[in-house]
Amino acid sequence: MQAGREVPTTSKCVPLSLPKGSERLCELCQGKAHLQCRKCRVTFYCGAEHQQADWLGIHERICELLVPIRTSTPLHPKHADYVELQLKKVELAEICRSVAQSKLSERKHLEALPAAQCCLRCSVDIYGPSTVQLVPAYLLLAEANMGLGNLALVGELLCQAEWAVLKSPDCGHSVHQQLHRSLGRLHAATGNLEEALVNFGNDIYFSSKEHGLDSPVTCAGYFLMADVFAKQGKLPIVRSLYSQMAHTWHSHLTQLLKAHGQNVHYPNPLLKASHDKGQRLEMDEMLRTMLAFQQNDPRNDPTQVALVSHCLAMLWFLGGDLEKALGFGGAALQASQLIPNYDLTEPIQGLLQLVHDLHTDPRPGSD
């Protein structure tokens, strides 16, 4: 729970009193509701625990927006107010999607559940059941449950997503890529490593079609595939994949660092993503895993250690954490000094100088 943030107790709810024979369902578990949100009065809960979880997860953001949607009577598509109501539903679904994605990127799986559930319900209301437009919501809900270890439910959600995609063969590369990545993660978690590799291979294929072979998005697919090969003990393949990924990320981060130094807006949205907290944490986790592998590898290749450490130093310099940038930069320099005439020694020294300069004379407004 975040310090200083108000999380309502049951004082923000009222006991539910309904006519005999009527029933309301809990927003989160669909069980019988006993509480009603005091503010919007269109949202119901089985108890205080689910009310608080929903408030923290999404309800605080959408409480007032729910009122016109849930109190409206069914409208014919030709009705004058139908389009306006649909637009409000689309807005609600997008808010829920954005909040769920943000929380998932920060590994807050439990907090992401209410937003993902609401996103799916809104999407069904807008587009109908079993349509391909529901796939992003299915995947968000599957990822949240994956993080919580609810693998059986993840399997059910991905089956529904896969069925929707199979019925819409012309859906975009991005949808296929995200679905195969989720399926690969599920198979890896359940020990079906060969099936995981098939899905991660498809993930990389569709990602390269959508973003390019050397994009950070595609690199994440390579990382997941390398993790499976590591579990199979196929270390030469892991080394090869990690090397390819390290060079790709190094190229992107070098361009970002150059743009940062020139104080210009870099046009590639995939590079801008490294400034996002969730994306930065995900990249940090992958690069740290690669660095640990290189440091523990019997082959002990200082070139790869220097390359990955330099990536981490640039990542955290751009993220504004000078201590981490200094630590990884020092490790990169130490490794680079073991390599005669190494071409990255000068750039590493230049980055360390930037960090030292900011330590002694911080610039106003620096991130």
Describe the structure in your own words.
α1 (48-71) runs antiparallel to α2 and α12 packs antiparallel against α13. The radius of gyration is 24 Å and the shape is elongated. β2 (35-37) and β3 form a beta hairpin. It is an all-alpha fold. The chain is built from 14 helices and 3 strands. Residues 1-10 and 264-275 have low confidence and may be disordered. The protein has a 3-stranded antiparallel beta sheet. It has a domain at 245-367. It comes from Betta splendens. GO terms for molecular function: zinc ion binding. This is Zinc finger MYND domain-containing protein 12 isoform X1. InterPro entries: TPR-like_helical_dom_sf, Zinc_finger_MYND_domain, Znf_MYND. It holds the Pfam family zf-MYND.
Overall geometry: elongated
The string of secondary-structure elements, in order, is EEEHHHHHHHHHHHHHH
Class based on secondary structure composition and strand pairing: mainly alpha
Detail the poorly predicted runs: 1-10, 264-275
Main sheet: strand order: 1-2-3
DSSP strand tally: 3
Strand content: under 5%
Biggest pleated sheet: 3 strands, antiparallel
Round the Cα radius of gyration to an integer and report it. 24 Å
* Multimerization state: single chain
Range of helix content:
55-70%
